[in-house]
Write a structure and sequence with these properties.
Elements (H helix, E strand, L loop, with lengths): L1 H9 L2 H24 L4 H77 L4 E10 L7 E4 L12 E3 L5 E8 L4 E5 L7 E5 L5 E8 L5 E8 L10 E4 L10 E10 L6 E7 L8 E7 L4
Antiparallel strand pairs: 1-2, 1-12, 2-5, 3-4, 3-12, 4-5, 6-7, 6-9, 7-8, 8-11, 9-10, 10-11
Length: about 280
């Protein structure tokens, strides 16, 4: 074969002689070095022969030590990173809690002014726990119920005296509040600037926008945009609570009365905490 011929030519007698001479010279060089050092010949020879191996072992040992230190350092960094993440999460939670308490304090300060104006109000504060609204329903659940003195038919407001809705279902430690945007609620109301009265309820415009509508206004009623609409007072709603602001006026479908569309007085979707009026003087 061609490879066997090449091998034979490579390992020719001349090449073999050169290799043998090189090995002999290397051995003689190591022996000479051992003799010239003044230490016992055998010890020097062994040391000289083992020196490259010792250097290799030392290099491997150094590399292994560096690799071990790297692994140990990496594990330490991982543990430190996990601990830092815990601290960051804890700090973020503290910030959220502080912001929540700050907002609650602001609401309570505002509520204090309301209760000073309406000393007859007995209020129970509650946080919204979930929304259960749909295309035809607008309601949410709060974390207070019968154990806190709540019953169906109680009015829910904001700290500013804005009507949120009505308690329509009550459990031991929860209650459902149906909002003013729900068509099932009809609230007697008046325009604060003129005294014209009507009934406010939630409705949908042709483009499916959910708005408040004030029905049964007299055709000669003078109504202006941005007029405030408030409750007239009843067994369900105290007098003077803010429902919304007029945005448009038109003649209703019968042609014998006016109606007005209203912008709700508060952004229901941004509410966190509400207040249930459990008692008030029905003037």
């Amino acid at each position: 074969m061609w490879g066997d011929g090449l091998k034979k030519r490579f390992w020719s007698p001349k090449v073999k002689a050169i290799v043998i001479i090189a090995v002999v010279l290397a051995v003689l060089t190591m022996v000479a070095a051992a003799v010239s050092s003044g230490t016992p010949f055998g010890e020097n020879l062994v040391g000289t022969l083992l020196s490259p191996f010792r250097a290799g072992v030392a290099a491997i040992d150094r590399q292994a030590e560096r690799y071990y230190n790297y692994l140990f350092s990496y594990e330490s960094l991982q543990a430190e990173n996990a601990e830092l993440q815990k601290k960051v999460l804890s700090m973020e939670e503290d910030v959220r809690s502080a912001e929540t308490y700050q907002r609650e304090n602001e609401r309570l300060r505002t509520l204090l002014k309301l209760t000073e104006e309406h000393e007859d109000y007995v209020l129970v504060s509650a946080y919204i726990t979930s929304w259960n609204s749909s295309e035809y329903k607008s309601a949410f659940t709060i974390g207070k119920g019968r154990n806190s003195g709540l019953t169906e038919g109680m009015c829910a407001i904001t700290e500013n005296g804005q009507v949120v809705g009505l308690v329509t279902d009550v459990g031991a430690n929860w209650a459902t509040v149906t909002t003013v945007m729900d068509a099932s609620l009809e609230i007697s109301a008046s325009i604060s600037s003129s005294g014209y009265t009507g009934v406010v309820q939630g409705t949908f415009l042709p483009d499916n926008t959910n708005v408040l509508r004030m029905n049964y206004l007299n055709t000669d009623a003078v109504v202006k945009n941005s007029d405030q609409v408030v409750t007239t007072g009843s067994t369900l709603y105290p007098r003077g609570l803010l429902l919304g602001y007029i945005t448009n006026v038109s003649i209703d479908e019968t042609g014998v009365a006016k109606y007005a569309t209203l912008e709700p007085s508060c952004e229901l979707g941004k509410l966190e905490q509400i207040f249930i009026i459990t008692q008030y003087a029905n003037n």
